[in-house]
Sequence to fold (345 residues):
Amino acid sequence: MDLTKGSIWQLLRKVTIPASTGSLFQTFYNLVDTYFAGRISPEALAAIAKSWPIYFIAIAVAVGIGAGTTALISNSIGAKEDRKASMYVAQSIVLAIVISIFVTLFGLNFSDELLRIMGSTEESIILTREYLDIIFFGAIIVLAQLSLNGTLNAQGDTKSYRNVLIFTFFLNIFLNPLFIFGYGFIPAFGIAGLAIATLVSQCVGLIYLANKVYCCKLKKYLYPECFKPKFDYISTLFKQSVPIMFTMLMIMFGVFNIFYFVGQFGELATAGYGTAVRIEQVLLLPVIGLNTAVLSIAGQNYGAKMHFRVKEVYGKALMFGSAFMVLAGIFVYLTSEIIISFFYK
Fold:
């Protein structure tokens, strides 16, 4: 999609709606995990809630790489430098693989201490680690998937990732009870089954996105030698990604801080707060989709040196986002007690 032409409102709609729809199903995916954790036990629900700010480390890094990839590739496309854009595609995947190793090592070695800070008992830590260890072993899948999605977003394609999230949502409804409670030759994994179902679903999404990137127009200059690490490209990607990673990690730190204080009131309070955060995410989705649209549209227009369109997309997105969040706040205030009651036996 050429994002340097046409009405900004129409482009925002075309890019935002698929991205928001995909994010909606991703949040539904998380709510399904929360629902099945509640079917296991209140302790399992609390364990999933406490795992979120730690797992968010992997998400923060992945989002940073995805956003950095989108910005640099869209900028190159806008400047008609497709060969350079293809190089960023390959090097973003290399960067995602390298950083995933550090994320995995961090998660496996420091989760216990982070859980203790949040007030978890030793029994709760053991339960939470059953879920988290599997998730961190699969960090490479999360990072590579969002790197590939960043490539597609840069070209205005937010539909492919939407399709992945819709399909994996329905797949997760089937896989969660299968791996949690077992069936036939598949044993009951309990809370670890939630993590196994997640990794299986994400593997399916990774294969689909890899195929979509392989079929896009940037494939023309995407040769095997492009995947050899090149410091200048990786350095540029890293510098572009770090501010976003840092912002996301600060959000994680804020959530972690809240969990620390909520944890003083017991596991049920933690479970309740964790469930409420998942519900809140649903109403953040249009703004997340809007963020994807702004990044893609502004990137291509900046590369094409059409700075007036960059200012226009910023102003209109800010107007829409602010109005929506005011309405979302009112909705949450009026319906919170009714909604959260669905997640407890």
